[in-house]
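Assess the record.
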Amino acid sequence: FDGHYETFFQRLLRELGHIEPLKVIASSATIEAFQRQVAHLYGRTEAQARVFPGPGPTLLQSFYAETLDVAQRIFVGILPHNKTIFNAVLELIEMYHREVQTLQMLTPAVANPYGGALRVGSDDWNQLLNLYATSLSYFLAGRELNSIRTDIEGDVNPSLERDRFRALELHELTGSTTTDQVSRILDTLETRSDPRASDAVLATSMVSHGVDIDRLNAMLFYGMPRQNAEYIQASSRIGRANVGLVLVCLHPARERDQSHYSYFRKYHEFLGQLVEPVAINRWSRFSINRTIPGLFTAMLLQLHSNRDATADPNKYYMLDFLRQKISAGELKVDDFIPFLEDAYLVSSPQTPGEMAFREDIRMRVQQFFDQIISQGSGRKFVSEALIPKPMRSLRDVDEAIEIELDSLGSSWAART
């Protein structure tokens, strides 16, 4: 969908006199096969695109980055035996916070249990532990997150309090978390200085982008994410300024997770090379059915309305006005087809997908004209006459279904 609008926009700019090609800067932390990406999204050849920054002349080093001997993140693979992954994750969360709180409660009279340079109870000691007082748990599905939350509240927290540990303060970062809640949670986690605070963040894939907090340094995965790029993005939320600990609890009943455990070390050595190319195909057979109503309408409003010196451009929204224009022969099918063929990159079709798109363009434009001419009274705007209607969002994949409530349903809706 986006590729169709991108190339239409470029064609529109040329029509309006912008001779210079549009410069596109696309940001991504993980990408593979960028040549296919730019071809399908922007209609550009490999010679017109490049990855920036490029690799340097020296192995493991470039102008922008270098590889250090010190580990930034420590990955630990865990495969439960004689217990479910659910119980294993629950125990790991509890054990982790028990250990951190135990270290926090040590008195200055106790020697450093690890023989390190930091003195127990000192400011440096407390500041270091504060960096690991928050755990981030990543779930592949919301139902697993909800189940873990229920058991933390009903079992883990009472168990901690019985043993005179602090209960965990839970935070959720999921697709259903509102923007205000996300901002409030992130601000709390970033500025938390209370040495007694013990936070557990339960998150889904929405945490993978844009969460850059130095206090997140411990993460637990409930199973292996489906995409390697997602695993890289999610695990990058921790260890951004300090050494991070990633506990990957793998599903004992899934062959894929068992394979990840068996080759855990080797898999992480080649993780960067295993990023999957994003699935993209601008010639997806039925995609044009969803985008061409919007691009047809865009031509009306951006080109034809501005070329008409005799009428108010805003009238091109109106169905009756456009019907008159078509009936008078002032707007023809051929006024749309060549432009749309250029916009969809099918002026000289080579592949079966391109040929199919060219046929669809000619058929659809004629259908739109017929729909506008034959539309009865009661419709005001051109967009209401087109079937399907123009997309209002790139998430607008399918036609909306109207739901009518009977008397019982109306009563229920009024109460809620």
Notes: The longest strand covers residues 73-78. The beta strands are 73-78, 134-139, 169-173, 199-203, 218-222, 244-249.
